[in-house]
Prior knowledge:
- The protein contains 14 helices and eight strands.
- It has three domains: about 5-120, Ribonuclease H-like superfamily/Ribonuclease H (Nucleotidyltransferase, domain 5); about 125-220; about 225-375, no CATH class.
- It has helices spanning about 35-45, 65-70, 80-90, 100-110, 125-155, 165-175, 180-220, 230-240, 250-255, 280-295, 300-310, 315-340, 380-395, 400-410, and strands spanning about 5-10, 15-20, 25-30, 50-55, 75-80, 115-120, 260-265, 270-275.
- The protein is an alpha/beta fold and about 425 residues long.
- The strands form two sheets. A six-stranded mixed beta sheet has the order 3-2-1-4-5-6, with helices on both faces.
- The longest helix has about 40 residues, at about 180-220.
- Helices cover about 50% and strands about 10% of the residues.
Amino acid sequence: MEVTLGVDPHKGSHTAVAVDDTEVALDEIRVRTGPNQLEVLLEWASAYPERTWAIENATGLGHLLAQQLVAAGERVLDVQPKLAARVRLLDTESTNKNDPHDARSVAIAALRSTKPREVGPEDHAAVARLWSKRERELTSHRTRTVCRLHALLCDLIAGGVPERLSTTKAAKLLGSVQVTDGVTAARVELGREHLEDLYRLDEQIAENKARLKKVVKASGSSVTEVFGVGPVVAATVIGLTGDVTRFPTRGHFASFNGTAPIDVSSGDKKIHRLSMRGSRQMNNAIHMAAVTQIRFTHSPGRAYFDRKVTEGKTPKEALRCLKRRISDAIYDKLIADARRRGVLKGPGGQAGNDSASSATGSHPAMPALRTRHSRTRRHPTAARQASSQTRRRAGSAPRPTAAAVRRTSRKAS
């Protein structure tokens, strides 16, 4: 009998419940986290030879336990917390919120899921994810330090300091301050400490970027062939994507990174709006690649951006369209890498993948921005302007307004 072992992980303990294919709880156990947690759980699960583990949030709080079970040869499924919450909401038997009921909900969610995500051993994607996260932390820390130094210099120098403050400018400004009292001396000393922090952070960022180059090169990925995708962006993409075969189409990948618009249609109105869902770190990486393409006038992305603006889209809308094309290009590269490693079989690749591509990727199956998206209708397109000019040259009468139609109907009556 196939049994699903649902696990509700916590920092101090793990609660596991065995559930059969009829969603009946067979047994449960609560294990304190520690060096012996794996042995205790495997001894308890030995009563069920045909078993599958289902761990809630196996990439977060349950990450260590999931990897321990995978290393022990167990089959482990990752269950998103929102799926377990839905099961708990619709359950009529266990309405109380406690660890055994949560573990049972996790098992049922894995049991009834049409496409469960199986947890595998960590590979180069985990390494890229670690060092790309380190890059974001160092950059964020440097930004905070610059802001502190900027605020401190505003109290020392009349008229303030430039908005873009480099270490060289900061050193010159601190050297130009005349120390007249103890408070000024303390501010100058604190400013020099902030400046030393900036020097140290710049060195750490440079070292981390060199490390990211080695990680991306060791992975053998071709994502860096996309214009604007450097080692930092590539490491972020590789680390956050993981197994790209879990995305069947470009649209699924775009939904994951937040570059696909959200369908908010109702009735006959077809409306698509900006998506704030998905991985914001991945969206930021694609945004940086798009900004880089726009900055260089010789890039295909800049030509595409200018064409969208000429068609009547705002710069923000054109940027969103470009981000979607970059997402498609990155997806094509990841699929090609997976096929080259033998992970993906067949010449056709995933659904939604075709042979037409460019430096920014091929056109998406669905446009990134529709005609009813945002303020597009306020900006008439070139084709619409040309058609209106043609009608005026042909002498066609303008369309009557609603008020003129009402006045004509009153006179006729």
